């Protein structure tokens, strides 16, 4: 919420800087140019008042010392806007006998050329400052948008990595299951061969009794080779 108030204050600073510059122009302009500046300042003062109202709404929703501190800042901004409004009302009033004063008549009002030049220079500096603030605010918004886009891409990449990790885990589980199944299958084959061989050996034990102990030797050799192969 504080960051939202900061954004409002940045917009308010840009507006008041531009209002100050245009008030300076209104004092020395005449005719259609003066009327155009007056219309612009009227509109900008309304925008500044709306920003202050938004700030006040945000401050009301806060608690503790932050609310008191921000409320003081908003009151300071409101006092500044009131001062600018008074200056604007004075600047847009016709001079002397309600006739617009030309450049030549300004000499009669004790406004020298040097004073007019300094006033114009000050107004131009304020206007440049307002443009600089506007550019800075625009860059801040663009940076915030870029940061949001980068965070979104990182989140998508993280989800992709997690999905890939899940697929790899499933493939590994499947591989080990297949390996266990193959091992069990080979063990059953070995068991079948062992029982078949034992059956043959015991089936032909009587005809081979004349081999003088060769049958026992064959059995020991077979079981020794089987154990080495199996374990």
UniProtKB/TrEMBL annotation:
<dbReference type="GO" id="GO:0016236">
    <property type="term" value="P:macroautophagy"/>
</dbReference>
<dbReference type="GO" id="GO:0005794">
    <property type="term" value="C:Golgi apparatus"/>
</dbReference>
<dbReference type="Pfam" id="PF12352">
    <property type="entry name" value="V-SNARE_C"/>
</dbReference>
<keyword id="KW-1133">Transmembrane helix</keyword>
<keyword id="KW-0175">Coiled coil</keyword>
<dbReference type="GO" id="GO:0006896">
    <property type="term" value="P:Golgi to vacuole transport"/>
</dbReference>
<comment type="similarity">
    <text>Belongs to the VTI1 family.</text>
</comment>
<dbReference type="GO" id="GO:0012507">
    <property type="term" value="C:ER to Golgi transport vesicle membrane"/>
</dbReference>
<feature type="coiled-coil region">
    <location>
        <begin position="34"/>
        <end position="87"/>
    </location>
</feature>
<dbReference type="Pfam" id="PF05008">
    <property type="entry name" value="V-SNARE"/>
</dbReference>
<dbReference type="GO" id="GO:0042147">
    <property type="term" value="P:retrograde transport, endosome to Golgi"/>
</dbReference>
<dbReference type="InterPro" id="IPR010989">
    <property type="entry name" value="SNARE"/>
</dbReference>
<dbReference type="InterPro" id="IPR007705">
    <property type="entry name" value="Vesicle_trsprt_v-SNARE_N"/>
</dbReference>
<keyword id="KW-0472">Membrane</keyword>
<dbReference type="GO" id="GO:0031201">
    <property type="term" value="C:SNARE complex"/>
</dbReference>
<dbReference type="GO" id="GO:0005789">
    <property type="term" value="C:endoplasmic reticulum membrane"/>
</dbReference>
<dbReference type="GO" id="GO:0006891">
    <property type="term" value="P:intra-Golgi vesicle-mediated transport"/>
</dbReference>
<dbReference type="InterPro" id="IPR038407">
    <property type="entry name" value="v-SNARE_N_sf"/>
</dbReference>
<dbReference type="GO" id="GO:0031902">
    <property type="term" value="C:late endosome membrane"/>
</dbReference>
<protein>
    <recommendedName>
        <fullName>Vesicle transport v-SNARE N-terminal domain-containing protein</fullName>
    </recommendedName>
</protein>
<dbReference type="GO" id="GO:0000149">
    <property type="term" value="F:SNARE binding"/>
</dbReference>
<keyword id="KW-0812">Transmembrane</keyword>
<feature type="domain" description="Vesicle transport v-SNARE N-terminal">
    <location>
        <begin position="1"/>
        <end position="91"/>
    </location>
</feature>
<dbReference type="GO" id="GO:0005484">
    <property type="term" value="F:SNAP receptor activity"/>
</dbReference>
<dbReference type="GO" id="GO:0006886">
    <property type="term" value="P:intracellular protein transport"/>
</dbReference>
<keyword id="KW-0813">Transport</keyword>
<dbReference type="GO" id="GO:0005829">
    <property type="term" value="C:cytosol"/>
</dbReference>
<dbReference type="GO" id="GO:0048280">
    <property type="term" value="P:vesicle fusion with Golgi apparatus"/>
</dbReference>
<keyword id="KW-0653">Protein transport</keyword>
């Amino acid at each position: 919420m504080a960051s939202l108030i900061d954004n409002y204050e940045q917009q308010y600073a840009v507006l008041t800087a531009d209002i100050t510059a245009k008030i300076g122009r209104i004092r020395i302009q005449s005719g259609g140019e003066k009327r155009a500046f007056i219309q612009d300042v009227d509109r900008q003062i309304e925008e500044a008042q709306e920003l202050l109202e938004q700030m006040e709404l945000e401050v009301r929703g806060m608690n503790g010392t932050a609310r008191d501190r921000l409320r003081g800042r908003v009151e300071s901004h409101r006092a500044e806007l009131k001062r600018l409004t008074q200056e604007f009302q004075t600047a847009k009033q016709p001079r002397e006998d309600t006739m617009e004063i030309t450049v030549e008549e300004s000499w009669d009002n004790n406004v020298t050329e040097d004073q007019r030049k300094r006033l114009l220079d000050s107004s131009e500096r304020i206007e440049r400052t307002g443009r600089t603030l506007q550019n800075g605010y625009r860059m801040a918004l663009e940076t915030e948008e870029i940061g949001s886009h980068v965070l979104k891409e990182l989140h998508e990449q993280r989800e992709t990595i997690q999905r890939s990790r899940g697929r790899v885990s499933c493939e590994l589980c499947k591989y080990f299951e297949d390996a266990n199944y193959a091992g069990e299958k080979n063990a059953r084959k070995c068991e079948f061969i062992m029982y078949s061989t034992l059956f043959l050996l015991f089936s032909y034990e009587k005809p081979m009794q004349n081999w003088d102990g060769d049958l026992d030797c064959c059995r020991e050799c077979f079981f020794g080779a089987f154990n080495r192969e199996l374990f």
